[in-house]
Automatic annotation (TrEMBL):
Keywords from the UniProt entry: Membrane, Transmembrane, Transmembrane helix
SMART domains in the record: UBCc (SM00212)
Pfam families: UQ_con (PF00179)
Protein name, as recorded: Ubiquitin-conjugating enzyme E2 J1-like
Gene3D superfamilies the UniProt entry points to: Ubiquitin Conjugating Enzyme
Residues covered by the UBC core domain: 13-165
Residue span of region Disordered: 185-205
Membrane-traversing stretches: 222-239
Taxonomic superkingdom: Eukaryota
Length: 253
């Protein structure tokens, strides 16, 4: 931390904020830990425990957090490094608390908020979002067991990074964020209609064409009227021409 203090302008709001968060997260917990790299305050490595009661339980997952210079006004990018079956590795993942969604990010949120949200997001449906995977529960359980032997080239064995210390209680804002994530997961599940069974498979509706007889009858009547008018007009024209011819003949006589 001393090297970081010398390297960065401690009067910068983003630097001050990250230094404060580094102090708050200095002690690892049983759920998560995170710390900046020794030479880069804007890149952190983190480790999280898989959420209990899910196919990720018992797994330990490691990743990177890339923070923009505008942090905390702009959100961080999150990258998973440990194979997990929910998120692609070495790729910026799409979450409502990550750089893919700056419109939903709140400056009051922190790296701890992002870690808690990541843990909460793991059991939710992938829904084809950027950086998501849709492995089966069995495949994810296998990866969870393998993850405990994973090592980071900079941090070492990740199973040694977490501690037995319980995480501090959630703040009201953090609980609100996690509730939104849980609601989103339930909403995504309920928005998918269940596939119809053989008994429930709807039969195709037959399209019944309405009769065109009334329209056809009307057109026939209209045609007859027009023909009658045309014949009458021709008769009047011939009658007038005949009268004119007869009058001219009498004049000559």
């Amino acid at each position: 931390m001393a090297e970081i203090v010398e390297k960065y302008n401690t009067k910068c709001p983003g630097v001050k904020r990250l230094m404060r968060e580094a102090i708050e997260l200095a002690e690892a917990t049983e759920e998560y830990c995170a710390r900046p790299l020794e030479d880069n305050l804007f890149e952190w490595h983190f480790t999280v425990q898989g959420p209990k009661g899910t196919e990720f339980e018992g797994g330990i997952y490691h990743g990177r957090i890339l923070l923009p210079k505008e942090y905390p006004m702009h959100p961080p990018h999150i990258i998973l490094l440990t194979p997990n079956g929910r998120f692609e590795i070495n790729k910026k993942i799409c979450l409502s608390i990550s750089g893919h969604h700056p419109e939903t990010w709140q400056p009051s949120w922190s790296i701890r908020t992002a870690l808690l949200a990541l843990i909460a997001f793991m059991p939710t449906p992938a829904e084809g979002t950027i950086g998501s995977l849709d492995y089966t529960p069995a495949e994810r359980k296998i990866l969870a067991k393998k993850s405990t032997n994973w090592s980071c080239s900079q941090c070492g064995e990740i199973k040694l990074l977490l501690s037995s210390t319980a995480a501090k209680p959630l703040t009201e804002e953090e609980q609100s964020v996690l509730n939104q994530i849980a609601f989103k997961g339930e909403d995504d599940q309920s928005s998918k209609p269940p596939p119809p069974t053989e008994e429930e498979t709807p039969e195709p509706e037959l399209q019944v064409l309405e009769s065109t007889e009334p329209v056809t009858g009307f057109l026939d009547q209209l045609t007859e009227i027009l023909v009658a008018l045309l014949v009458g007009a021709i008769g009047i024209f011939i009658y007038r021409r005949w009268n004119a011819f007869y009058a001219e003949a009498e004049t000559q006589l």
